[in-house]
Structure formats: structure tokens, C-alpha cells
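Below sits our specimen:

——
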Amino acid sequence: MIILLDLNYTLVSNSQQKLKPFVRQIEKETYSFDLLNRIKDKTVILITARPKIHKDRTLQSIKYKTSWQPQDAYFNEWFLAPPSCKKKILEKYIFPKYGANPESYVAIESNPSTRAMYEKLDIVALTRDTVLETFKPKD
């Protein structure tokens, strides 16, 4: 199983905190260790509508603060809305690299419109809260 992991409001615990310039926001981000403890032993692809210009800084922040990295990460290079961006990432990058079998994937996604897009592709899409309530952490 491959986890398609949303960034804001899913991995990022304090997404409601907005700072400028954006690099300050990345510096102050905190990450959900409860969620990471449930998925860290799986193949995880970070898939986000965050602009690609912030990719390196975001991945460095995640690594520094959690000692964890996703196996792959895709950011928004087209400035599209989240559902359109993530659908394009799936079609252009993820499906060619990892396969197009929807049963191979589970999305953990905060955005209801993006969850609906995944579900139209027959990919199970869960919220962070559902994952935390349903799956026990790995010890």
C-alpha cells in the first residue's frame, strides 16, 4: 500500500497559523507525530498543492523536525487548485512511476474536494482524524 499524504491540515498540525514571508511559516510548522507513527513504516508519497518553489525548504523542515522523510514528494508546479493539481500529479508522475492500480493507494487528505477527486479515481481517501481514530500506532 502506498500512502498519498496531504501536507497542510494533515501532516502539518498548525496549518491555521499564517506567517509572512512564507519561509517563516515553514520554519514554524509543526508536524503530526501521531499520524507519522501510524504511517512511517509504509511507502509514503507527499502530494501537496503547496507551490514547488517551497519544496526543498519544506522537506528540510520535515526531516529536521521529525527525523523522517517521505519516499517521494510532489508539489504544485502549475499553481492549480488542490484537486486539479493533485490529479495532474497523479497522472503525470505517480501513476507512471508507481502504477495506476487504485487499490495500491490510500490518500490521507484534508480537502473534501480533493477527497472526492480521489474517490472518483477509486482511491480510498481518509482524513487525518479518521486515520488517528481507526489505526493503532506502530510501537
